[in-house]
Design goal:
Number of helices: 2
Shape: flat
Oligomer: single chain
Amino acid sequence: MLTEQLYKWRGIDKWPTVTATVTSTEIVSEGGRGGRTMNIFFSYSTPDGSIESGKFFVNDNSSLYGLAIADTFDIQFDPRKPSHYYSLESKPLSSDIRLAITAIGLIFFIYVIIVQFFSRSK
């Protein structure tokens, strides 16, 4: 949705895709207000043979939640900076909803400021 548009706008959709392998996981929270969350540590090999590593913080709405050591998933990396990576799977729907609500709130705030400005200038 909104995340996918930002993904295309930033050119991430053109980054090469590789398979990442989970090297370790860490449960951060098993519930409560923030829901269940975990850190997923992983490594991936670029076509030039270098090994990169990274971490995703995911909640239980992500398809990556619950992965175990040696599980694999796809990521994309920036060929100009191989240590920069992205996975659409790490972004849960709730992050799209949060981003949309923030954007709507910002647009409303700007609208109110503009209306106030023009109503005072009359």
